[in-house]
Amino acid sequence: MRPMRSMFQRKRHQVPSLNVASMPDLIFTVLFFFMIVTHMRSDEVKVKLEVPQGTGVQKLANKASVVNIYIGQFKGEWAVQLNGDLISPEDIPARIEELRGGMSAENADKLTVSLRADRHTPMGVITDVKQALQQSYALRINYSATELK
Amino acid sequence: MFRKRYRQQIPELNTTSTADISFMLLIFFLVTSSMDTDKGLLRQMAPPPQQEEQLMDINKDCVLQVELDAQDQLTCNGKVVTPKQLREEVRTMASVNREGHVVAVKADRQTSYEAYFKMQNAIVGAYATLRESYAQKHFGKHYVACNSEERTMVNEYYPQRISEDLKGGGR
Prior knowledge:
The complex is a heterodimer of chains A (149) and B (171).
Chain A: H1 23-37, E1 39-40, E2 53-54, E3 58-59, E4 66-74, E5 77-82, E6 85-87, H2 92-102, H3 105-109, E7 112-117, H4 123-135, E8 140-144, E9 146-147
Parallel strand pairs in A: 2-9, 4-7, 7-8
Antiparallel strand pairs in A: 4-5, 5-6
Chain B: H1 16-32, E1 33-34, E2 39-44, E3 63-68, E4 74-76, E5 79-80, H2 83-96, E6 102-107, H3 113-139, H4 148-157, E7 162-164
Helix pairs in contact in B: 2-3, 3-4
């Protein structure tokens, strides 16, 4: 082709292709790690809330016995959400009873209510919820908060 | 041999895209799952008040009256305090009169939850420091490192005596 360049033209080295056969295995390992350490978001939070910050917060163990109550703004009003759906505080005892029935006896004893309330919620709403919980003998309450650094 | 055919090499399967597929799965899990563990203050409420319940008389000196008004103003026995001061108050009270003191909590319906939470945090924190020091002194380790037996011992030594006005009571 170009005879002049032929003396400068070196022999072409082919770059050896990288063996990526084990890459999927690596990524699968990471994937399984994440699948184990995380948990799926169980219920969609409909209310808008921002939990307060605390200093001495503890981790809440045993997810199976936890009932989530979210209190926050919904369409400009304070609303209470139990697990998946919006309810009024009067309905709490019935719902708790229902949930308790679905649990194993051991978990039902340790039933804990995780109260995730917005920091600006007036105490009136929370007191109503707490009274309802008291009526249904769900006495372990976890005031959800983030750790203050 | 007439049966001998020449060996055909099996073509390699192109697995380059398996990595992409697993990456997509990984990202899907990262998005849909939540890392955050539920953290908070664990409290135990009193059972609902019974009709024939008798009111106990408690010496006024042993009661720490903690109140929150509609403007989130925190008062302790009538004087305005910060959560930090409240913590100190509760700590002195609980260490001086371990078995007999009562922290009576009352919150207005207009109080914000944040103020209420800060108050709870201060009270629980006060007990936590007391229990921590007791655990350090008697077991030589942190309260969190104690086993359940030791914890019960510590908890019984420094009981949380918090009464909450919910038109009922709390312990």
